[in-house]
Amino acid sequence: MAEKSPAGDDAARRLRITEIFHSLQGESRTVGLPTVFVRLTGCPLRCVYCDTEYAFRDGRWMDMDEVLGEVAAFTTHHVTVTGGEPLAQKACLPLLTALCDAGHEVSLETSGALDVAAVDRRVVKVMDLKTPGSGEVARNLYRNLEHIGERDQIKFVVSDREDYDWMRACLKEHALSGKCEILVSPVHGRLAPARLAEWVLADRLPVRFQIQLHKYLWGEERGR
Known about the structure:
Layout: E1 14-24, E2 34-40, E3 60-63, H1 64-72, E4 78-82, H2 92-101, E5 105-110, E6 124-128, E7 153-158, H3 161-173, E8 181-186, H4 193-203, E9 208-209, H5 213-218
Parallel strand pairs: 2-4, 4-5, 5-6, 6-7, 7-8, 8-9
Antiparallel strand pairs: 1-2, 1-3
């Protein structure tokens, strides 16, 4: 029988966790650095290229202190809270604060479809604005841009030229280049990295091109 979800005060102290693991950061400004990943279960989006569908369901309920203890055991400074969509869980916000209080450098990987206003200011938000090729472009919550600071990062995952042109228009419309660092990456296995790099260079876009390092090291292996 499936374990029941917590209610009342317990909901603010317990999280449904898919996995906690130690790896090298595969994306973002801290790419290559040893990082502990806390992957929360559940996501309200269904991007067509999602590579973590296993995080949509199941997982195990853990008390906040259990999560903090498991993270601390790796003795690693950088911690990334990811999913799924981590903000879909009520206890994600206090978890982020608790990890910061414990002295970690904390980043949050979020789709940008859920409100980020209450995220602890010490947390680096890595927000993925969904392109048309994701199938979820209508879910972008653009008011989140009001809560993005210079320490944060906005990510675009590009699957084809249409996505790229949409990204360029988005950068201009919302003046994103002056707001924070912009990350752009190709959908792994769908768009050749060199092709995307050529587009970026031709247009002289002020962005950070990246590939998913972990995919090249370990493929689709979970927990890496």
